[in-house]
Amino acid sequence: MFITRFPDVQEALSRPDIFNVTYAPMMDPSVGPFMLGRDCTEINQRDKGIMRAFMRMEDLPAIRQKVRSLANASVEKQIYTQNQIEVVSTLSRLVPIQLTREYFGFPGPDLASMFRWSRATQYDMFHNLDKDPKVHQDNIDAGQEMRAYLTQLLPQRREQLKNGAPLEDVFSRLLNSHFDDSIGFADERIITNMMGTLVGGIETTSAAIVQLLDELFKRPRILKEAIDVASSNNDHLMYRYCWEALRFNPINPFVVRHCRTDYRIAKGSLRATTIKAGSTVLISTRSAMRDGLQLPAPSSFAIDRPESVYMHLGYGMHTCLGDQISRIQVPEIVRRILQIRGVRPAAEIDYAGGPFPERYPITYDTPV
């Protein structure tokens, strides 16, 4: 069953009691019981609430400056010594991992491990529809390695804090909080949720950056406007250009759910349909964001659309935990790329047969 109309997609994503996630069999052997695989449970409500409380809104201005600095450093390191920049490895994946290290407090043993852990877990948990056993095993291996690393890091970080280290990353805030046993948020839960910051924060961000850039490059007039905005201080307008471009090629065209009981979708309309219990349901946010009954001129590029039409960061219970960070990080990285004089694609996006952009080279005019 494929759900495509805007109101029907919102209806389905608003009923996690009916349309259940199918992630637990991939998540549990890797990162352990995790909120994303536990709809309508204490783990979901408690863990999400705690993590949101420690990812403070007042952090956002500093996050913007950090992302801006990291993106600029990567561009400046390359722009004067070569005539191409490979976006995926040096910006769209790298900067989110650097932010995970510095803001979330999950440094990892090295960049290569962080890249591998992120990709392996995200691939199996959300994209392995064919149940490829190697993809699943890579996910399990990555999760076990992450857990071993964080299990070793946790007491070291706690000792640093005990000795007065002024650490303000999310991991350190969690360790400083001393949750009562009755809450059920012991060290194992902290470790699992720290793993989740890497699982959910890298590949999705990278895909968003690369795919929306590709859409901008296809539209010369819009590209020129976006480049002008990138040179201004209008953060909100930069965000609008990014989110509208991403609407044409969003991160995930659909999400998969399992229908727990018979359910009549779009009840009262001419398209009303009964979805049988046990059905696999594909809920297409991509189609919803191009629904002509909801969006005027859905094939046109328009930066004045209501915020409510965009589902890039999920909807309902599965709105991204780091949604506010993503609204800053994605436009800031794109902004720095668009500031490069004469920037243009050097080749098409290379997915290398997988679900994620693996290479996206851009070229540019020689800096003065």
TrEMBL record:
Pfam families: p450 (PF00067)
Family annotation (CDD domains): CYP_LDS-like_C
Membership in a protein family: Belongs to the cytochrome P450 family.
Protein name per its UniProtKB record: Cytochrome P450
Entry's transmembrane regions: none
SUPFAM superfamilies in UniProt: Cytochrome P450
Names of required cofactors: heme
Listed GO MF terms: heme binding; iron ion binding; monooxygenase activity; oxidoreductase activity, acting on paired donors, with incorporation or reduction of molecular oxygen
